[in-house]
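re: that complex we talked abt at group meeting.

here r the seqs, copy pasted straight from the sheet so there may be weird spacing, ignore it
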Amino acid sequence: MTVISSQTGAVDTGWKTLVSKDDALLDGGLLWAYGASVAIPLTHANYGYYVSSILLSTGYDGAGGGNILPKGMLLIFKADPTIVLNTESLPQSIWQLVVYRYDNVATQWIYDANGAVLLINPDILLPVPDAGYIYYAVYASDKIGFNSDAADDEWMRIKIIYQPISGPIKL
Amino acid sequence: MTNYTSSRGAVYTGMIELIGKDEAITQNHYCASVAVPVSVAAMGYRLTNVIYFSEEDGSGSVQTPAGTLFLYLDDPAIAANDAAQGQADWQQVIYYNTIASASWVTDAGGGVLFSGVDVLLPIPADAQNFYASFYMTSAAGINDAEGDDEIISFGLVYETL
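got the structure back, here u go
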C-alpha cells in the first residue's frame, strides 16, 4: 500500500505500566486473565496515527522475583474499556472498542537475567480515539503468574512509537 | 507500507565498529556499547537498512555471528563480554534487530549481512547519538584465540523526519 499523507515526526509515548509490581495477575489459579487497562495519550494529530513500533518490556525491581516471559495478547481500544485486574472475559460492548490485537508467544521475548523486550511492528493506521487523545491497552497472560509471591516486584510495560497524521491521507 | 513524508533524504552512518579486533566475545554475551552518531532531526528518524560487516585482519577467520543488535536512546555503558545488561538499560531499548549466521554472505576477504527494516525512531536522549550493543548467541567465540583480529561492524541508513 502506498500512503501519501502529511505525516510528521516520530513520537515516543515513553513507558506505561501494564502490570505493576503490586498486581498479582493470574493470582487464584486462573489460566487466562486480563491485566487492568491503562491510558496511553497519543498527541498532535487531527487525522489519526501511523503506528510503527510497539515495545513490551518485562522485568523486576531489585531482587523481588525474576523475569516473566508471558505468552499473551495485546489489545488496543479506541475508548476506555475499564478492565480491572484478573478479569477473565470481556463483555461484548468492550470487544467492539478493539482497534488492534497482537498475539505473542513466549519464545519471541529477547532477554537476559535482568530484563526482556518484545518488539512489534504493526505498520498500521489508527483513528483518533473517541475520548480525545487517550488510548487504552491491556495484556492477557497465559499460565504464568506475575507477583505470585508477596515478595515479588515483577512488572510489564508498553511504549508506542508513532507518527501523528496532521493532514488528510490519500490511499 | 511506503510512507512519503517531508523527509530530507537518505543518510548513512558509515561503518561503526561493534566488536573490535582486541575484544573477545563469547556465546550469550554482549559487546561493549558504542555511540551511533546521527544527524540532528527536528522530529525523528525512519530507519530503513541495517548493514553488518565482518572482517579479519589477523590469523582468525571471517566470523558470521548470530544474535541481536540493540539500539538504545541513551548510553547503557555495557562492557565487553558482559553476560547481562542492567535493569535500567532494558528501558533504554528502542529497537532491536536479530540476525542468523546463515544470513551472512562471505568470502575469504570478508562478509556482509543486509537487513531491510521500516521503523520510526524518536529523537535520542542527547539529540545526537543512539547507542548500540550486540548480544551474540552463536557458539563460535570472536577473538578467542591468539592472533585473531576479527572485527564486526554495522551501519544504518535512515531518513531524518
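couple things i noticed - Chain A is about 0% helix and 45% strand. The first strand of chain A starts at residue 2 and ends at 4.
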